[in-house]
Amino acid sequence: MTVALCATTIVVLALLWEVAMPWIDRRVEARRARRERRAAGAAPYDPGRERRAEQRARELLKSCVNEEEWGMYRDLGFLRVWGGQSRPQGARELQGVDYAYLVYPHKPIVAYLPQTGQLLNEYCVEFPDEARPYGTPRLPDSDDVLAKWMALKGDERRLISEANLHLPGRQVDTRQVQRDLWRLGRWERERLARASREASERSSRRAETADG
User: Fold this and answer.
1) What is the domain count for the chain?
2) What is the value of pTM for the model shown?
3) What is the DSSP string of 111-175?
4) What's the order of all strands across the beta sheet hosting 119-124?
């Protein structure tokens, strides 16, 4: 009985060791990385850094885009940018039809036709932050959106010509895009209705002031 119990204990300990080894390895690697950063004079990891960076990025984005665009990003999580000089492949035969882009954080830019909702292409571009002292070079979400917005506004033709071109649905789910277009349409209708109500209320207050 004692022999069987000892054998069972040994088996259990061996299994626990196998399970614990990956965790121990990760802890050892993390400790080694911290020592190397300290030896190199790098700042220790700050878990709140990413959150503060995103907050600063949102403030910068708000200061650069107009009120409608900021409200769109704040409420919906993406920006619509109207097409400028160049015309996406697939729309060139539709003369006279405007096109636009949906700009998501860390996803390809999606070109579409606002009148019909037809999706045209995905344009994959990246704007890495090479100055990060540690961790991933990925920009904060709002900085990534701002970089794409500025590139489309400043030199759309160059951005589109240098981006990796894919058909719709390659990286961004077409059903998600269609839902987002529906959300955008509803958001714009509600915004216009709200603006109309506010204008009517201002007009009523002016009339009451004049009567008084």
Assistant:
1) 1
2) 0.69
3) EE-TTT--EEEEEE-----TT-SSS--PPPHHHHHHHHHHHHHHHHHHHHHHSEEE-TTSSS-HH
4) 79-82, 100-103, 109-112, 119-124, 164-166
Q: Give the pLDDT confidence of 82-128 residue by residue, as tens digits.
A: 997 544 444 444 444 589 999 999 999 999 999 899 999 999 998 87
Q: Match 């709200």 to its residue by tokens.
A: 194
Q: Is residue 19 part of a domain?
A: no
pLDDT tens for each residue of 164-195: 999 999 999 999 999 999 999 999 999 999 98
The alpha carbon of residue 76 and the mean position of all alpha carbons in its chain are separated, in whole angstroms, by 11
CA atoms in the 13 A half-sphere facing the CB of 10: 6
Chain centre to alpha carbon of residue 202: 37
Strands 79-82, 100-103: parallel, antiparallel or unpaired by DSSP? antiparallel
Give me the residues paired with residue 166 across strands.
122
* Paired tokens of 16: 């626990």
Residue 163 forms part of a structural domain:
yes
Domain extent for 61? 51-195
DSSP secondary structure string, 77-118?
Answer: S-EEEE--SS--TTTTTSTT---EEEE-TTS-EEEE-TTT--
Residues 86-112: b if buried by 16+ CB within 10 A, e if exposed: bbbebbeeeeeeebbbbbbbebbbbbb
Residue 85 · residue 155 · CB < 8 Å: no
Question: Is residue 168 helix, strand or coil?
Answer: coil
Cβ distance 103 to 78 under 8 Å?
A: yes
